[in-house]
Amino acid sequence: MKIIIMAWRNIWRTPWRSLVVIGAMSLGVWSGIFMMGWINGLNDQRTISMLDDNVGHGRICSKDFLEKSEVFSTIDNLEALSNRLVADSNITTFSSRVICNSMIQAGSGSAPVIVYGINPNKEKKVFKSVQNISSGVFLKGQVGDEIVLGEALARKLEIDIDDRVVLTFQDINGDVRSALFWLVGIYDGASRLIEESIIYVPSKTISFQMGLIDSIGLSNESQIIAHEINYRVKNPYEIEKANNALESSILKNRRSESQSIVFRTWKEVSPDLGVADAILAQSLLLFMMIILLAMSFGILNTMLMAILERTRELGMLMAIGMNKRKIFNLIVSETILLSFVGLPFGLFLGHISLLVTSKTGITLESVEQGLEQMGVESTVYPSVVPEYYLPIVGLVLILSFLSSIYPAIKALKLNPIESMRVL
């Protein structure tokens, strides 16, 4: 305890120099925490934007469709599966899709696209891209010759509302079919890639054109057919728990179907989003360690200067009987105290800054187009990251101790008699 008291007093023998180091530590911790919150918020916005736009929280499809994308690989017993989804308390909403790869042709060109045959009312509850209609209107029902596509594809094909387009695709027999549609809406997607590749048509119309249903099924509202089901849960970051519970409840006593239905989370559907979340924590801590490492060199320099100025004093302490262990502990204590005085100020400033900006947001108009390509809005809302505070304290402690070793060894090498002669 006496060593700590001596170390605390020694820090304030040169207050201005100590205040500069403390201020630098506070600013370093603040900037690191704020950058961690900003990057974390940016990644969260990108993830949520992609989930809301096209990926969804969870996805169900047949194993054959996942592996081969065959037109006839639809989900068996879809009505019973839908009833199970309705009964599951973890599922907030869901929507089924009929999917086919197609070629879209317009007056000025053509492009490969993925056609989603949907139920408009249900699709709006799962995805936001179908709500972001920048021109025209969205689909009105499951039957009709209407089509909705993205802004980027509309510019590429040079088409506008009320223009005609032709879709060419294969039916369940492998024959090539063509169907005429009228463009009724243009949506604003999360990214240019989505806008260029995904289009929406009424589910029953495209199912009929592909031969999945007959004319009777076209008019029968109770007949449901789909290649995949997308659903949402209350918390997308707890999707594994909800997905496992759903899979267990559905396949519990239906072993024959366990090999034909595949349940996937958004991390499996879009691996890049899952990988980004997995490596983000390590990257942020590495970023913080680099900042603190730079701060530790300043502390190292300060302690070396302190030992140089107190050479005579340290020599006298050794001469009157203070052993090397106590000298070492004194230098280490001074270094750690010097670091830890600035740490709470940095943590407090960083926390307050993130609390404020998480509500107000930070607008980056100069890089708006680049952020749009990532599926992120120009206004970024940083997130508060209390889960990193304890690791930061640990990093400061470790780096402070490492910074104190060289000055402490330098002090231990002093000769008491020669040191006392220093003026």
Can I get a quick summary?
The protein is an alpha+beta fold.
Helix share of residues?
A: 55-70%
Going by helix content, strand content and strand pairing, the class is: alpha+beta
Q: What's the gyration radius in Å?
A: 32 Å
Strand order of the largest sheet: 2-3-8-5-7-6
Main sheet record: 6 strands, mixed, barrel
Low-confidence stretches: none
The end-to-end span amounts to 30 Å
> Could you state the oligomeric state of the chains shown?
single chain
Overall, the morphology is elongated
Mean pLDDT: 82
Summed up, the helix count is 17
Element order: H for helix, E for strand: HHEHHEEHEEHEEHEHHEHEHHHHEHEHH
Number of strand elements? 12
Note the beta-strand portion: 15-25%
Keywords:
single chain; about 55% helix; elongated; alpha+beta; six-stranded mixed β-barrel; 17 helices
Q: What do you see in this structure?
A:
With 423 residues, this protein is of the alpha+beta class. It has 17 helices and twelve strands. The radius of gyration is 32 Å and the shape is elongated. The mean pLDDT is 82. Helix 12 packs parallel to helix 16 and helix 14 (324-360) packs antiparallel against helix 16. Strands 2-3-8-5-7-6 form a six-stranded mixed beta barrel, surrounded by four helices. A two-stranded antiparallel ribbon has the order 11-12.
Question: What secondary-structure arrangement, pairings included, does this model have?
Answer:
Layout: H1 2-11, H2 15-55, E1 58-62, H3 63-68, H4 78-87, E2 91-106, E3 109-118, H5 120-126, E4 133-136, E5 146-150, H6 151-157, E6 164-170, E7 176-187, H7 192-197, E8 198-202, H8 203-210, H9 215-219, E9 228-233, H10 239-251, E10 261-265, H11 266-269, H12 271-309, H13 311-319, H14 324-360, E11 362-363, H15 368-373, E12 379-380, H16 389-412, H17 416-420
Parallel strand pairs: 3-8, 5-7
Antiparallel strand pairs: 1-9, 1-10, 2-3, 2-6, 2-9, 4-7, 5-8, 6-7, 11-12
Helix pairs in contact: 1-14, 2-12, 2-14, 12-14, 12-16, 14-16
